[in-house]
What does this fold into?
Amino acid sequence: MLVTTSGDCSARVWRTSDWTLMRELRHENQRWVWDAAFTLDSRYLFTGSSDSYARLWDLEKGTLERQYCGHQKPITALAFRDQAA
It folds into this structure.
């Protein structure tokens, strides 16, 4: 899979075997999405955006699972360290 982030307030997840769109992730209050990171099992995706939130998305369902707040300015980069059990 490939994820792209954009100033159109979305993150898009693409299937790299045929380059088709698998999922578009968008939240009503979300602004420019700057960065994204997959979990180790690729079931979830974290995004960071200009509205100062990091979000955790369930890629299978396409649902927002959790929002993380605390920054006063846009989140322009993120990193996630996931460990295998």
Summary: The chain has a mean pLDDT of 93. The first strand starts at residue 2 and ends at 5. The chain has one domain: 2-68. The CA atoms of residues 42 and 57 lie 11 Å apart.
